[in-house]
């Protein structure tokens, strides 16, 4: 009985992980502009991989005691995914990729023609630079 | 939380290093404790000049509560984004939102930006250093004011209490 | 039950990697391609972990950890390059 429940949990985790990762990649493929594409991989794929790792963790803990080192990859993935998403968004803004026409709000970063500074070098405010 | 001393400039980092070492080695033998302990003291001492000032965690319990809230929000966020992606009509209302920060220190801002990226429909895109605003891209937002208010109430205020109160 | 789930998950992850590959080939801009490769390494982590379950060997976890670390560092390095590349004229 308990075995069936545990097996069911593993199977659920694996399939949920696969489904989330697939949806994330689908978003990457068919959304309109870069900023929208960023949402799929940064959230959905991370959770998909996390689910798969937890499924694998339960699978291997079943036989010989708890093995929690796979949790390291999960934590690592959840810490690093926002950072790389942020960096990618920043480089996209720097390259001035056009957002979808439906997008409301136009940030200063996309307006000016010539990039004068990056964040690392000098502060950049709302006021137009000289 | 734990006051830094001369031998342990960053106590939390040292503890984390020891924990990760034991997890990687998968054993709690005495030798691993000693080796991990030596590494946990040596590594922070060597790389100390590269680190910024460590933030002080004023309320560890609140941090735990925040962690679980974010964990719950990650799951709802994923269901929401999956729905939006799978919607065949593709009804999305993307927007760039400028979020005014009230946090002052770097580390809490980093945590806030990461939280915003992992939670419903928003990715933090750019941090302006002087204006103290965070540029956010949202996938589907009806009212930008409401979004700013929600982020402020739900995430920034707890962080303010935990780190800077 | 686990076998079936394993096959379904493997198929889904392989399909995800194919989609990423499409975006990496087509992607109109450089950040698009970087994003596609970034997603691809995340998916390959899961693929390796699933393979570990398939052959019932938990040592594959270390390969997955290595891919996670190298992938993150290389993504950040490429982003830094994209951010700075224009500055040095």
UniProtKB/TrEMBL annotation, chain B:
GO molecular function: monoatomic cation transmembrane transporter activity
GO CC annotations on file: plasma membrane
Annotated Pfam families: MNHE
Mode of membrane association: Multi-pass membrane protein
Compartment(s): Cell membrane
Keywords of the record: Cell membrane, Membrane, Transmembrane, Transmembrane helix
Main location per the UniProt record: membrane
Transmembrane segments: 7-24, 30-51
Record carries keyword tRNA-binding: no
Family to which this protein belongs: Belongs to the CPA3 antiporters (TC 2.A.63) subunit E family.
NCBIfam families: PRK08965.1-2 (NF006518)
Name of the protein: Na+/H+ antiporter subunit E
Record organism: Salinicola corii
Automatic annotation (TrEMBL), chain C:
Keywords of the record: Antiport, Cell membrane, Ion transport, Membrane, Transmembrane, Transmembrane helix, Transport
Major localization listed first in the record, in broad terms: membrane
Superkingdom of this protein's organism: Bacteria
GO cellular component entries: plasma membrane
Keyword Membrane among UniProt keywords: yes
Single GO molecular function: sodium:proton antiporter activity
Subcellular location: Cell membrane
Membrane topology: Multi-pass membrane protein
Pfam families assigned: MrpF_PhaF (PF04066)
Membrane spanning stretches: 6-22, 34-54, 60-83
Family the entry assigns: Belongs to the CPA3 antiporters (TC 2.A.63) subunit F family.
Protein name: K+/H+ antiporter subunit F
Taxonomic source organism: Salinicola corii
């Amino acid at each position: 009985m308990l075995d069936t429940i545990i097996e069911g949990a593993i199977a659920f985790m694996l399939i949920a992980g696969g489904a989330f990762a697939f949806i994330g990649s689908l978003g990457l493929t068919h959304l309109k502009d870069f900023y929208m594409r960023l949402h799929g991989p940064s959230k959905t794929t991370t959770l998909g991989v996390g689910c798969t790792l937890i499924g694998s963790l339960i699978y291997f803990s079943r036989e010989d005691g708890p093995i929690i080192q796979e949790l390291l990859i999960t934590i690592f993935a959840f810490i690093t995914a926002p950072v790389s998403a942020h960096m990618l968004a920043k480089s996209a803004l720097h390259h001035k990729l056009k957002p979808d026409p439906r997008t409301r709000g136009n940030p200063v970063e996309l307006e000016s023609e010539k990039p004068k500074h990056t964040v690392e070098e000098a502060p950049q405010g709302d006021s137009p630079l000289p | 939380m734990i006051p830094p001393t001369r031998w342990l400039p960053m106590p939390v980092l040292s503890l984390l290093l020891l924990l990760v070492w034991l997890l990687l080695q998968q054993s709690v033998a005495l030798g691993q404790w000693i080796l991990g302990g030596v590494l946990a003291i040596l590594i922070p001492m060597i790389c100390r000049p590269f680190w910024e000032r460590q933030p002080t965690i004023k309320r560890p319990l609140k941090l735990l509560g925040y962690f679980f809230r974010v964990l719950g929000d990650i799951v709802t966020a994923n269901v929401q984004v999956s729905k939006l992606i799978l919607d065949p009509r593709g009804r999305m209302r993307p927007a760039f939102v400028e979020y005014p920060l009230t946090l002052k220190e770097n580390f809490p801002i980093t945590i806030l930006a990461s939280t915003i990226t992992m939670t419903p429909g928003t990715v933090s895109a750019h941090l302006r250093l002087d204006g103290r605003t965070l540029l956010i891209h949202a996938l589907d937002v009806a009212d930008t004011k409401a979004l700013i208010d929600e982020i402020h109430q739900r995430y920034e205020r707890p962080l303010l209490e935990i780190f800077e109160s | 039950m686990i076998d079936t789930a394993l096959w379904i998950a493997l198929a889904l992850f392989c399909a995800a990697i194919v989609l990423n590959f499409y975006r990496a080939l087509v992607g109109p801009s450089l950040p698009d391609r970087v994003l596609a490769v970034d997603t691809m390494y995340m998916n390959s982590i899961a693929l390796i972990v699933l393979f570990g379950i398939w052959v019932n060997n938990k040592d594959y976890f270390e390969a997955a950890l290595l891919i996670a670390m190298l992938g993150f560092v290389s993504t950040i390095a490429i982003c830094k390059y994209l951010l700075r590349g224009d500055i040095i004229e």
